Amino acid sequence: MVRVGAIVLVTVLLAGVVFPVAGMSSQVNTASGGGADTPDVQQAQADANATDTDGDGLSDSLERSVYDTDPTDADTDGDGYPDGMEVRCEQAIPNADPLRTDIYVEVDSTQATTLSDPARTSIVETFENAPVSNPGDSTGIDIHLVTDDTNLSANGTVHSKSRPGVGNDIYDFRANHSEYRSDGYYYVLLTDDVAYNGDDYFVGAGRPEIAAMERFDSTKITASLFMHEFGHAMGLDAYQDGIDEERYSRTEYDSVMNYNGLYRQLSYSNGTDSVGRNEWQFVAENRTQPAIECVENGTCSSRCTQTAKVTVNG
């Protein structure tokens, strides 16, 4: 999607090292040149009130002439967010692109610090380089790591299973501190001590839509652990061949979900190794996704403005 040209505001309807052990899941644009004349504002407003075949909050006319999205598909890029929400809900899902897969993650911490800038950069770049195609002819995935609370109070070890009491399992933290759950965000907690299935030998645990992990001084170890546990949160589960196992070499199963790859790499498998599972394609098309609870008629009124920034393609 080319994001250049005139802009108007219109109303829309709309290794040799002893590594820490990670836990298992029990379950499964760079702008380019070009330009265009500013459309007549009255006409744009009229278009916004025209037919909306797919009910995504954008008129068919705007989808065809402005956004290059599919007026018969409410979610052109298939990332779980309706096109209208991606266009007009900057407060809820900042920098969303209706022609590119977007994944949003809220990152909280019981520590004074959160993910370091180098660790965040490593994670973001790994997703950007993902070998998956988008409707707008780009490749890769945009992961948005939204830092929220730090210095949260934990009642000792944070467990991967629900336990009596407050502040001692990952579900407590999501229920009491997640600010973006209704907007379809995954939830990741950084903390000092994690227990998987009651065992604090592990340093991370991933469950559907959520994960908890410890943070390390090494950028690579922290980023790799994040990718592993977040893989579990997206549905890459231990029952699948090779995941959370050491029986395959990295050549045979080239993934951070392989215990022989954990802490040594960040990427998921592209399906060309011996195991043959295209994990990146799964992430793009079939991952476990948090519900977007506030969607109504293709938008999220409590988290969206009534105006949308329209970039006219050139």
Question: Which keywords apply here?
Answer:
single chain, 314 residues, Collagenase (Catalytic Domain), disordered N terminus, disordered C terminus
Description:
By secondary structure, the chain is of the alpha/beta class. A five-stranded mixed β-sheet has the order 3-2-5-8-7, with helices on both faces. It has a two-stranded antiparallel sheet with strand order 1-9. 20% of the residues lie in helices and 13% in strands. It folds into two domains: 41-90, no CATH class; 100-298, Collagenase (Catalytic Domain) (3-Layer(aba) Sandwich), CATH 3.40.390. α4 (117-128) packs across α6. The protein has helices spanning 41-48, 60-67, 83-88, 117-128, 170-177, 219-233, 279-285, and strands at 7-11, 102-109, 142-147, 158-159, 186-190, 194-195, 204-207, 210-213, 307-311.
**What does the main sheet amount to?**
5 strands, mixed
Here the CATH topology of the largest domain equals Collagenase (Catalytic Domain)
Shape: globular
Full CATH superfamily name of the largest domain: Collagenase (Catalytic Domain)
Using the coordinates above, name the CATH class of the largest domain: Alpha Beta
First-to-last CA distance:
10 Å
- DSSP helix count? 7
What share of residues are in beta strands? 5-15%
Number of separate strands: 9
Q: Into how many domains do the coordinates divide?
A: 2
Oligomer kind = single chain
Low-pLDDT stretches are 1-19, 24-44, 307-314
CATH architecture of the largest domain: 3-Layer(aba) Sandwich
Give me the strand/helix succession. Answer: EHHHEHEEHEEEEHHE
Keywords: Calcium, Secreted, Signal
Pfam families: TSP3_bac
Subcellular location: Secreted
Biased composition (Low complexity): 42-52
